[in-house]
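Researcher: Hi, I'm a grad student and pretty new to this. My advisor asked me to get structures for two proteins we've been looking at. I'm not sure of the right format, so I'll just paste the first sequence and hope you can take it from there.
Model: That works fine. Here's the first sequence with its structure tokens right after it:
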Amino acid sequence: MSINEALNILGLNSNFSEKELKRAYYALVKKYHPDQFEKSSREVKDHAETMMKKINQAYETLQNMSKSNGFSYGYQRKSHNTFDVKAYVFMKKAELEQKYLPKKYKVNIFKNEILAIENIINSFFQEALRYGTKTFIDDGYIISVNKISKVFKKMKDIYFQKYNIDISALNVQLNYDCSFDEFYEQLESVKNKYEQYKNANINKVLKEASIYESYYGYNYAKVEIHNIVRATLTSLNQNVDAAIYKMHEQIQKAFKEAFAIKQEIVMLQVKVEETNNEELLELFTKLKTNFDNGCSFRESQSAINYLKHLIYLNDNLDSEIDSAFARVIGIVNSITEEESELRKNINIWFAQLRNDLLHTSLQNISKIIDILNLSNIKQIIEFLAKSSRNYQEDNSCKINKEKEDINNKYYKYNTEYNYDKIYNIKYDYDYINYKKRKY
């Protein structure tokens, strides 16, 4: 900037004094400082920002002129006048605010970080005024810039975490020695590049996975394949080729599992048809339809295990019912008196329930046997009482008293020694890992 331009901006003539220079500078800084235009329009803010740059540049130009001509208008005077701390501090603060506070962008996710930058600048301003020499002010300025750079790094982490950006995949270096708006533009640029990179990889994965749609048996495994592709897309990293290779391995494994389940269903069909049981045939048809339409392997395997269990129950109905009843009766007999009213009632209830079970569905039988095998004795008593046709309300008080007595004996009887014997009853047949589910 030329001297004439500087004089025009500050409104001075060529014979200005030191006081006139400072007075003109302070007046213009006060007039055009960004804090005065926080609620103004963008156009007004931009004009104020431009004027502050010109004012600082004009002030610096006239200072340099005074030094080179031996005048005493500058900060380091050659005469008796001393260094003007206040003017220098105001100028440095204005530089920090001009560079590191947002002008163009207002970003909500960086609200706390913007506040931190403002605190750094205000802290520098207060310390500089309190202890100010030129050396101290310059050092404090550099320290403040370094602190702000650390805030920028924190902003980067927050931004990348919000948008799930893996910068290592792009090999991009960020510049922290820039204004707030320039740094935010860098983050936006990285985000756009990462989205392009990710979309390219997604298309690559989908293209590789689409080749299996024409394979025989794709309908059986399509749910599992979709899950595999989805997991691959959510875990894409820098080594995309390795992720795709792993995806192919998992899909091929899914096809093998699908054909194994298909073979198991074919073998199960023979067993179901041998039973001539309409309920089992209906459940098998539902299982086969769901598998052919592509339900998950987990659901299919669970349905197969449940159907196997019902087939076993159909073949061994009497022994399974008697076994479940015998276990509960044995426990009740061991912890009640021989003449107990509850003991007599339970034997009656069992006889009625056994007769009912012979006329109900296999699924209901399975559910009731599970209750008898796996529930505690108190729950079994309540279940039997409520399910008995001869249960009368006027007996409820007597039964409740019996249940309280048996409850006390029951927990006393429950020792670590016989825990497995009484509580942890499991099925005696082959399907140990069977878990009951509504099919």
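Researcher: Oh nice, that was easy. Here's the second one.
Model: And its structure:
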Amino acid sequence: MAKPNYAFEKRKRELEQKRKKEEKLQRKLQNKQAKEGEGAEPAAAPEADTPPA
């Protein structure tokens, strides 16, 4: 019988959590932009939220 690879499973869970978090952030930004309307400020908002590389 094969030995379970817990590190792989953990990494898979972490990637799934990260993906869901990113999707949630994108939805929040879209909702915020929809409430503010189509203007110059919403286009600049995602750049401000990205961390420096």
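Researcher: Is there anything I should tell my advisor about the second?
Model: You could mention this: The mean pLDDT is 84.
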